[in-house]
Amino acid sequence: MFDSENPSPEQLLEATDLKRKRAETKSLDVSLNELADMYEANELKIRPEFQRLFRWSESKQSQFIESLLLEMPIPAVFIIEIEEGKWELIDGLQRLSTFLHYRGQLEAPDLDPPIRKGDKLALTGCDILEELNGTSYDDLPLALQIRLKRSFLRVEAIRQDTDPHFRYYMFKRLNTGGELLSEQEVRNCTIRLLDEKFNAFLIELSRNDDFKTCISSLTEDRRRMMGDVELVLRFFAFKNNFSEFRYDVRAFLTDYMERVSDNSNENHIKFNYPKERLEFGKIFKVLAVTLGENTCIRCLEDDRYGGQFLIHHFEALSLGVAKVADRINDSDFPWADIKDKLADVKKDPEFRELITGGGQNSPGPYKKKIDFVSEKLRSLL
Q: 227, 231, 254, 273: which has the fewest Cβ within 10 Å?
């Protein structure tokens, strides 16, 4: 019998060996040219939701190419074997994308600005070989082109038959190229290794026109870091699992997304996709028709709206409306009255007090601000 609180040395060794055997890995030395050929042949996949995280500046990209030409040591990249002879990149995005960009092989239309196949990086910011600045791959002498193409990277491959949960936790702990990712970007790239359905559902709803109207004050930087997708997740996590929220919102959101996505989790949360899609659409239609672009900003003097996106407004209003969603009937709905009532909520001194001050990330204040909105609406519905 294994004692989880006071395991013996033998039990620790046995447990370690058991978990270790769940990871089938192998190490390979692969030339950059071979990796580029695999990318061209669609044998090495860089998924769009992962590719959009390519963030190295042109200067940083240039210094990486400079390091390759000088034959400096380069960290390993990590891939998943998705089928025989086909890989998917899970760590090493910045390095591999830089090489592909330099060669003119990178296709990344979701970047801002987009990178198209044929666009070749012109080096800038090289501080060891300053002679490289202003040049591109085509300007290199043949000997240097060959040296670059034959440069090897250590590839750590996670075999196809590795336990998917082990893949997931391995990715969570990898150093993703030194680039700081948002919490939602990490969730997006990792939890899909367990199952893609819920992840794809969140992305789909983030493109809902009414939802986009309501969060129009969200900055472009936040959107690029999947802040809009996180808002959809936040909505469902608080709506469906509020009783388990304590204080750490980030951990709460990750836990909810993991448990919905992973059918084998002993605490798996069932999710009714058709029902939730309809309810999401209904709630954000109400907000879009009434408050519209003013949903997530404050009401100023003289009934004007302004300022930055406010997460507490998003939560209170969307979840407050959700609590009375069963009373909403599109064919006979007092839109003008609801608009006035929600505007009054934003101006109400009690509401303003509920969404300001300390202790906002705890269950009590969350419940109070949501209930404040729902109770105001119940009188009309």
A: 273
